[in-house]
Structures are given as structure tokens and as C-alpha cells.
Specification:
Length: 270
């Protein structure tokens, strides 16, 4: 697989100064106006600015962020509990993941040779995030990303991702109407927009880096993990360096333990 020919620099919100955060939904319009000035100063083009102008506050994103207790990282769950909260059983998850890994063994082996990340980790993340592409989200990506960035509990940490989403509209990777996860996540692996800009890979060689293309998404996930310190051929169980790298993907300890646990079962059954 070949790497993307051109690296795209992420537009940084810090360069222009972050727009002020909000504490009520009625302030969303004012936040967008401030973000628009910031985006224009950072070089976002007409398509991205139009997408921002049209973006609506994402109610599901706001409700989710307003209730931290609903989030998986707020209380300890065993890997089994974490997986079975979404899937029928651990066995069904592992069996489905193994099936996809075995069906595409040459592809996953090629990814591991290039990036050092085993297929068991990638297929576990893919399965947990979107049921292997079965559901990639129905929230407007730009609206979700901007809503998340606006919310004071999350601001300004996610403002770069809101700007990156606008940048991806400019580049034609997504449109203002594209849909994904409730926080603006993209495609098969549910990348935040900033991570797609930083690490996106054209793995199928069609000249595009497409988060809705399975090959591009999986290779990009491996590229992101490697860039954050993944060590090829090393263990990934809890307490190892590679386990720590999973925090770059999702900072929930529950999530990290579940992915490492599932991948271990997949490797054990391969």
C-alpha cells in the first residue's frame, strides 16, 4: 500500500485564538459567527464557510455532553461488560471480527508489515465503532463537530476538529450534508476530522483519502496508531506501551481494555 502523496497540514485554532465557548443552546449562532471569523483567517475556503453557516446545533451531541454520566468512561466496566453493552455476546463479537480478518488476511498482513499494527487490533476497533461499516452514523458531521467544539466542557480541545471538518468540506472529502457520529466522527473507523487530516492514507491508490473507503480507513487507523508510538511486534495487553497508545484513539480506559481484550481473543483463535 502506498502512502498519501501530499501531507495536509491541520489548521490550528490556536493561531487565531479560539472562539469563546457557550453554556446554552441559544448562544450557538454567536459561537458560529466567532468561529467563522477564525476559520476565514485560517484560510478556510467558501465551501467550508458555507457549511459552517448552514450547520445546526446537534441536539444529540449537546445532550450527550450535558450528561457526563451517560459516557462509558465515567465508571469502571469489565471488557466483557463493555462489549456486551453493545453486542449480543463477546463470542459473537470475536467471531464476527475473526471472520472479517480471515476474509481479508492478505490486506491486514500488508498493513501490519507497513505500520506494525496487527489486524486483530484494527478489526476490533472497526467492529466496535461501526459494526464493520454497518452503521457509520446519522448526525451531520459539521454540525456535530461544531457543537462539540462550542460546548464549554469540551472547548477549546475540539475546536481544531471543527475547523478540520470545514477543511475537509473544502477538499471535497465530505460535504456539508455528510453524516457520521454525534461528535463529528467520520466513516468506517469514526475518526475525528483533525485526525483524518493528520493521518489520512490513500490505501487503495485511487488518488483520494476517503474515510468511507474500508482500505483507506483501516490503513489510516494503523498510521495514526504508529504515529502515536505503536511498537511493531510488541504486546498490547494492559500495562504495556502499546496499550497506552490506544488512549490516542479513545481516552476511555473501558474502551482501551475492551479493544485489547477482544484483540487478544482474536489472536488466540486465529
Amino acid at each position: 500500500m502506498r502512502k498519501a502523496a501530499i501531507a495536509i497540514a491541520l489548521i490550528s485554532a490556536s493561531a487565531a485564538g479560539a472562539a469563546p465557548c457557550i453554556t446554552s443552546q441559544g448562544q450557538f449562532g454567536a459561537y458560529k459567527q466567532a468561529l467563522r471569523q477564525e476559520a476565514a483567517a485560517a484560510g478556510i475556503g467558501p465551501s467550508g464557510l458555507q457549511a459552517l453557516d448552514a450547520a445546526q446545533l446537534s441536539g444529540i451531541t449537546w445532550r450527550f455532553e450535558s450528561d457526563p454520566s451517560s459516557q462509558s468512561g465515567t465508571r469502571y466496566r469489565s471488557p466483557e461488560q463493555f462489549l456486551t453493552a453493545r453486542f449480543a455476546s463477546v463470542n459473537s463479537f470475536v467471531s464476527s471480527a475473526q471472520q472479517r480478518l480471515n476474509q481479508n488476511r492478505a490486506f491486514f498482513d500488508a498493513i501490519e508489515r507497513q505500520y506494525g499494527v496487527p489486524g486483530s487490533i484494527l478489526v476490533s476497533i472497526w467492529g466496535y465503532e461501526t459494526s464493520w461499516g454497518g452503521f457509520t452514523g446519522d448526525t451531520p458531521i459539521v454540525g456535530g463537530a461544531v457543537t462539540l467544539a462550542s460546548y464549554c466542557r469540551r472547548h477549546p480541545r475540539f475546536e481544531d476538529d471543527a475547523l478540520a471538518a470545514l477543511q475537509l468540506v473544502d477538499q471535497g472529502v465530505i460535504t456539508g450534508n455528510s453524516r457520521g457520529g454525534p461528535s463529528g466522527e467520520l466513516g468506517h473507523m469514526q475518526f475525528l476530522a483533525g485526525n483524518w487530516v493528520r493521518f489520512g492514507v490513500d490505501a487503495n491508490g485511487d488518488g483520494r483519502r476517503d474515510p468511507n473507503n474500508v482500505a483507506d480507513a483501516l490503513a489510516t487507523a494503523a498510521n495514526m496508531l504508529r504515529a502515536n508510538g505503536w511498537r511493531a511486534g510488541q504486546p498490547y495487553s494492559e500495562g504495556t506501551a502499546n496499550f497506552g497508545v490506544l488512549s490516542a484513539w479513545n481516552d476511555s480506559g473501558n474502551y482501551q481494555r475492551a479493544i485489547a481484550y477482544a484483540a487478544g481473543l482474536i489472536d488466540g483463535g486465529s
